[in-house]
Amino acid sequence: MKSLDFNIGAWIGTLLQMTAWVGIVWVLVVAFQYKKDIAIDGVEVVIHNPENRVHLIEVSNFTDFIKSSLEDSIHTYTLSELPLKELFKKLNTHPYIKSAKVFVNNKGILKIECQPRYPVARVVPARGDSYYVDKYGQIMPLPMEYRPKLPVVRGRVPQVNTNDETDLIDLANIGEFFTLVGKSAFLEVLVDQLVVTALKEYKIIPVMGTEKVELGQWESMQEKLWDLEDFYTEVIAQVGWGKYEKISLKYEGQVVATRKTTATP
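Below the sequence we write its predicted structure tokens.
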């Protein structure tokens, strides 16, 4: 009899456990179904820009983006009807956005959190539209409303719709060039324009002075920029502005400065 009592007790305990698990599963199913049917009640956008840097995306852009991506007003959708995957994909391929998260909270608010791309220069091809690039050389078409003033790149530069592999490498170099320049407060002020020649040599048009600065091709660009800053802070600071016609750093480890010639009567 003791054995029988024990078995009945164990069976009752197992039954109670099973009943509890069924209850939990039922609650989860109901909650999931409720979550799927929750009505969308608005949109909240957060643009993460902790360093307060220049970017091209505004909160108002997301309102237009959502309207163009949906057939009806967002307030007519439930969570199960909202094309979250499509919104996520479109936002993460937008040229002004580096990354984005898209989700709906338990109050039915569509939340969008994004990390913007930061333009570092404006590229002006000989033909076609100009555009911005970020530090990776990612092309960012000019926005209609807001166009920040940034250093300009001219000369033999790719067009805005290029997919050529060589062009993409050139754009990556341009993006990295201005990233290197941005590490120096002095160079960031000095470099107003960059000219890329047919031989892919870089020339700077400084915002101050009349000298032409030749950097040569891309190799050892970081060292060339260091040498250029040293020349300005150690030599130009001593002799004064406007004394040189050309400063060449085309060859690694060398700074060749050509003084202006004085016209003789």
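Helices lie at 2-37, 59-69, 84-92, 165-181, 185-190, 221-239.
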